[in-house]
Design a protein that fits this description.
The chain has about 450 residues and is of the alpha/beta class. The protein folds into two domains: about 5-85, no CATH class; about 110-385, Vaccinia Virus protein VP39 (Rossmann fold, 3-Layer(aba) Sandwich), CATH 3.40.50. Helix content is about 45%, strand content about 15%. The chain is built from 18 helices and eleven strands. It has a seven-stranded mixed beta sheet, sandwiched between helices. Strands 2-1-3-4 form a four-stranded mixed beta sheet. Helix 11 (about 255-265) links the parallel strand 8 (about 240-245) and strand 9. The protein is elongated. The termini are far apart.
Length: about 450
């Protein structure tokens, strides 16, 4: 291992048990020897030079090209070791701040997501084989953060809970119109149409997702109430009672936040409600990881809340509620990673070894970022008026409970929307305090 890389690793790894074997066959150890051992083998001089110059990009790329391997531990264990040593963010250092400021200047060019480029970026990731996603997602093909109400929930149960949670925040009534921006494989739109007897329009830029969504609507006999279009949200003109967007805002790009919220304000009726579900970060604004930007989500970016709020305020929309889901996505990604690795041979038949290694690093890196770094999920509830939702947020939990009871078959004698309204309208039980009789005035 060359001297420069040796010094870099020495400055980063202080705790833990890390070993690197270089292309010359010599092994160097780092850390205090505590915890599980992670042993990286760098096979080529080319890989060693690349890692020295740009480790955050070169390590996953060299792993993809089989010029780097882990003979003890795995990608997730390696990233845990690194993240626990560098803390929440490496940009706290003077060098980190300098590098980050330089990268921020290039960000507008990296996220220039006009209609044409947006479609191309979406196709890069979401128009992969549908069989791939079926091998690691839940049965409903939910490709976004699940909601683990209990730690023992299965992925399928947690994804259903996510749909209940979002639908409850929308407070949908029968016959209302709902716009789903970035509708994926149609699961949320179908759930809303089926459950609330609402009319749903889902828009996506993925031809693969559009076809699957449309087929599902026809198969369920819901095509009169839910319709999916291969459409950019910026081209819409009709107005909706409710708007929901899950896992799409990460692809908008900072250059287009004002456009996004201005358009949503125009599309939302005066008494409407919108829920935005997006990955976010709890640290100040930064840039997209080079590996993720190049190989996984070109044009993508994870925003800080401080980058979102000014555009919401200027659009005329009002913040009704903000919820931060912390480790929910880490557990979701753990389930995806485990299912992906369990089906690795099947995925390799669809693509190849390089693709499998790329996605192993992507899923492991994403889980690590939510578990040990600064990523979370924001759920923003937005309105145009301040009196369209109840004054307290307990209606959300009541609605979720009513939906869960209906899904369990306890209220099938009446429409679910009616059952939900009855539950929400029911006043909370009150307890009265009896005066203690002491015999004294």
């Amino acid at each position: 291992m060359n001297l420069f890389l040796q010094r870099i690793v020495e400055r980063v790894i202080h705790t833990g048990n890390f070993a690197i074997t270089g292309p010359n066959g010599r092994t160097s150890t780092f850390g205090d020897g505590s915890g599980p051992r992670v042993h990286m083998v760098i096979h080529t001089r080319h890989a060693e030079r690349a890692i020295t110059v740009h480790p955050s990009l070169a390590i996953p790329e060299m792993f993809m090209e089989q010029e780097l391997d882990f003979v003890e531990g795995d990608v997730l264990g390696f990233l845990e070791l690194v993240y626990r040593n560098i803390g929440l963010t490496w940009t706290d250092s003077t060098w980190g701040k300098l590098v980050n400021s330089v990268r921020l200047t290039a960000r507008p060019f990296q996220q220039f997501n006009n209609a044409r480029r947006s479609r191309k970026n979406v196709a890069h990731h979401y128009d992969l084989s549908g069989e791939l996603y079926k091998l690691f997602l839940d049965e409903d093909m939910q490709y976004s953060c699940a909601y683990f109400e209990r730690p023992d929930m299965t992925l399928e149960e947690a994804q259903l809970a996510k749909k209940r949670h979002i639908a409850s925040k929308l407070k949908i009534k029968p016959g209302q119109t709902v716009l789903d921006i970035g509708s994926g494989w149609g699961g949320l739109g179908l759930y809303i149409a089926r459950t609330f007897e609402a009319d749903v329009l889902g828009v996506t830029l993925s031809t693969e997702q559009h076809q699957v969504s449309t087929d599902r609507a026809h198969a369920e006999g819901l095509d009169r109430h839910v319709h999916f279009e291969l459409q950019d949200y910026r081209n819409l003109s009709e107005r909706f009672d409710r708007i929901v967007s899950v896992g799409m805002f990460e692809h908008v790009g900072v250059n287009h936040y004002r456009t996004f919220f201005d358009k949503c304000a125009t599309l939302l009726k005066p008494d409407g409600v919108m829920v935005l579900h997006t990955i976010g970060r709890v640290t100040p604004p930064t840039t997209t990881n080079a590996f993720i930007r190049k190989h996984i989500f070109p044009g993508g970016y994870i925003p800080a809340l401080s980058e979102i709020m000014p555009h919401v305020e200027r659009s005329g929309l009002m913040i009704a509620d903000v919820e931060v889901l912390r480790l929910h996505y880490a557990d979701t990604l753990k389930a995806w990673r485990e299912r992906f690795l369990a089906n690795r041979d099947k995925i390799k038949e669809i693509y190849d070894e390089r693709f499998c290694r790329m996605w192993e690093f992507y899923l492991s890196g994403s889980e690590a970022s939510f578990r040990w770094q600064d990523l979370v999920v924001f759920q923003l509830q937005l309105t145009r008026q301040n009196d369209v939702l109840p004054m307290t947020r307990d209606y959300i939990g009541k609605c979720e409970k009513a939906l869960e009871m209906h899904e369990m078959g306890h209220s099938k004698n009446e429409p679910v929307a009616k059952a939900v309204e009855k539950t929400i309208a029911r006043p909370a039980a009150r307890t009265t305090r009896r005066r203690r009789v002491t015999g004294k005035d």
